[in-house]
Amino acid sequence: MKPRGLLAAVIVLAALGGALYWSNRKQKADAAKPATDTAATTKILSIPEDQVKEVRLKKAGADATVLRKGDDGKWQIAEPKPLRADQDTAKSLISSLSTLNADKVVEDKAADLSPYGLNAPTLDVTVIKKDGKSQDFLVGDDTPTGGGAYAKLAGDAHVYTIASYVKTGIDKTPNDLRDKRLLTFDQDKLTRVDLQAAQGETIEFGKNNQNDWQILKPRPLRADGSQVEELIRKLKDAKMDATISDEDAKKAATAFASGTKVAVASVTDASGTETLEVRKDKDKNYYAKSTAADGIYKVTADLGDGLDKKVDDFRNKKLFDFGWTDPNKVEVGKLTVEKSGDKWMSGAKQMDAPSVQSVVDKLRDLASAKFVESGGGAPVLDITVSSNSGKRVEKVSISKQGDTYFAKRENEPSIYQLDSKAVEDLQKAANEVKEFQPPKKK
Is the distance from CB of 76 to CB of 68 less than 8 angstroms? Predict the structure, then answer.
């Protein structure tokens, strides 16, 4: 061939190659363009959520993950090994699959799937329904802009693009789907909490007739409900790190075995009792072992410190339980006032509401500076507060020994040492309650 002819052939070949390159590039770029209104409504999958029985997720080069609904209606991970599933994450996955929409239809009848990575899918999702029928959904390469991915149904020639967030919603691993809670109790059905601290002190909490938490052991005591709820919250939020390596898991097990016991907590609900033991190593790292989950895991210092408590940390230091509910009757020494509608009355006399409210506020805030085993002295003040339409009646006696005030609630053994100023301010406020004066006419 003459040099001139050879050169012409090379030019023609280059032009054809360039045209093919730009054609393929345009095809992918077009596929990545925002969907039209019509395409946005194109459904790929439409399966009622309550009809989904099983989902099988097969990623390239990895074992299949199988999520299966049990007879109790709860989702469980069946493969690659049986694990509890996080119900919220599992339901989110099912929701994503049940109404899966396309961003765009790329081809109606794709003869070659390789340009989209669908000849060897990165993710193969099989949805099995209650009737035994299944649908297979394939996800291929990301679109050139990275805003989505190519997808299709097995046995269907249509090729679609789906949004990145749709792919993320269904591309899950066992660790993504796993229930990471170390304790799985139902907080609304919790009936008992036990806490055994390192010092050997065992504290047991239970609910009273008014559904308030009380200390049952080491002896019956009033509990600070907010502190008990905070303990429960820490136990409820205790989670494992499911992404740790086998080597780190072995280190955690070794640290736990040689660590110092911090506490053992047990929770009981309608399903039974679960227990969590926490230990601490010499570097003050905390590790936990649960009866509700396999393995030993490093946990936060917040959990460890939250369990390292004594009974006094959970005792109710407030002298009265009426809380933010205004009482309907108050007796402080010689003062007796009772609510009648929105008025405070002392016998037939209407009393000044702000001055009565000052007494109520001080009663509400009256709290123990510390708990003592003994204390008494001369009686100073008897107080009775009726609240909850008279269903709750609280009686407190205050005495003084030297410069120190002590208080006892009726039918309770606890002795509360009080701040002197708080008692004296209460007495002063009670003495300053005055009769109501109507506004002067101008």
Answer: yes
Query: Beta partners for 411?
Result: none
pLDDT in tens, 40-56: 468 899 999 999 999 99
Task: Say yes or no: 169 and 257 in one domain.
Answer: no
Domain assignment of residue 216, yes or no: yes
For residue 326 the two structure tokens come to 């205004």
Domain of residue 351, residue span: 329-431
> How deeply is 67 buried, as exposed, middle or buried, from its count of CB atoms within 10 A (0-12, 13-18, 19+)?
buried
Q: Are 438 and 352 in contact (CB under 8 A)?
A: no
Q: What is the pLDDT of residues 228-246, one digit of tens each?
A: 999 999 999 999 888 888 8
CATH for 165: 2.60.40
Quick one: which of 57, 294, 85 has its CA closest to 173?
57
Closest CA to 185 of 234, 250, 119, 223: 234
Of 14-23, 333-342, 364-373, give the lowest mean pLDDT range: 14-23
Q: Is residue 274 part of a domain?
A: yes
| Residue closest to 208 by CA, chosen among 225, 196, 194 | 225
CA atoms within 13 A on the CB side of 370: 5
Distance CA 40, CA 48 (A): 20
Residue 221 and residue 413: Cα distance in Å, rounded? Answer: 9
Among the three residues 291, 314, 337, which one is the final residue of a domain in this structure?
Answer: 314
Q: Whole-model pTM? A: 0.74
